[in-house]
TrEMBL record:
It is found in: Membrane. Keywords: Membrane, Transmembrane, Transmembrane helix, Transport. It comes from Friedmanniomyces endolithicus. It is a multi-pass membrane protein. This is Uncharacterized protein. The chain crosses the membrane at residues 31-50, 57-77, 106-126, 147-165, 194-212. One of its GO terms (cellular component) is membrane.
């Protein structure tokens, strides 16, 4: 959850940087936006859960239309690099040199961690099985169909994306002030700030409701363990609101858990440590301590 919230925060920052060219990203901004996404996801699940079916239908619709919007832009407006260059050339690694081959392999293994995150989360629906009618029939089919659809569209998207990257602009893409190379690629392909902003908004919307979905599944899993007395304070965590049937205590618990113990996964801790705000607080505390010693 913190990882998705931090990723959503990065998209917001990229959107701001696209709208305002002189914007400079500070670490504390990403931290506060991450907290905001976590809090929003928790509050939505606690007070607007009845709107979830409507929202989910809207999200799926935007997901499909967004996919076609990106692919059409890449295919129609983007450059078409030959497959031999896309799949065999590795810029900056000098892979043709034997002494560089080992570094290329290590770089490949490290880089695959990011994209692989898109393949996880398929088990999220399992935690809602008790709230489904005829779960043994609906749940497996929903999981398999969604996996097939998303894996197929993801494959098409990644091939379209890497084929639309102009090698001459690769350094500019990686050094983009938005912090998100995909935004720079869209800007180069469309040559339109308005189109780039529109597509960035789509990504922000999708990541926002991904955070909400993760909050939903996490709270249900915690509630199930608490109901079976499998966690400490199970009586407190297993309580369910009579108004909407939502485990509010579990929601609050996972919110504190995400913002404390899992901050390292989302980059939240690094954001704070790199921020001028924290640096100023540390310096102020240090000056106060020195005065007390004197």
């Amino acid at each position: 959850m913190p990882l998705i919230s931090y990723t959503a925060a990065q998209q917001i920052i990229a959107l701001i940087a696209t709208c305002q060219a002189d914007f400079v990203w500070q670490g504390w901004q990403g931290a506060l936006l991450t907290i905001a996404f976590v809090v929003f996801a928790i509050l939505f699940n606690m007070f607007a859960i009845n709107k979830m079916p409507l929202i989910e239908g809207l999200v799926v619709t935007i997901h499909l239309f967004g996919f076609f919007a990106f692919v059409v832009i890449f295919w129609v407006l983007g450059p078409r690099e030959p497959a031999s260059r896309v799949f065999t050339e590795f810029q900056g690694m000098e892979a043709h040199r034997p002494e560089r081959l080992g570094k290329l392999r290590v770089a490949t293994l490290v880089a695959v961690v990011g994209p692989s995150a898109a393949l996880i989360g398929a088990d999220a629906a399992v935690h809602l099985a008790e709230e489904l009618k005829d779960a043994s029939y609906i749940l497996p089919r929903a999981m398999v169909s969604s996996a097939l659809m998303n894996y197929a569209t993801a494959f098409i998207m990644i091939i379209s994306f890497v084929s639309a990257i102009d090698p001459a602009l690769l350094d500019d893409v990686l050094a983009t002030s938005t912090g998100q190379p995909w935004v720079a690629v869209i800007r180069h392909v469309t040559r339109s700030q308005a189109a780039t902003i529109a597509l960035a908004v789509v990504m922000c919307f999708q990541f926002t409701f991904t955070s909400i979905n993760q909050a939903t599944t996490s709270s249900r899993q915690l509630w199930a363990f608490a109901r079976d007395k499998g966690v400490p304070f199970h009586r407190f965590l297993s309580k369910v609101s009579e108004r909407d049937g939502v485990p509010h205590n579990g929601m609050i618990n996972i919110a504190f858990h995400w913002l404390s113990t899992n901050s390292r996964d989302s980059g939240l801790r690094d954001s704070w440590l790199n921020s001028d705000l924290l640096d100023g607080n540390i310096r102020s505390a240090e000056r106060s301590r020195i005065r007390d010693v004197r």
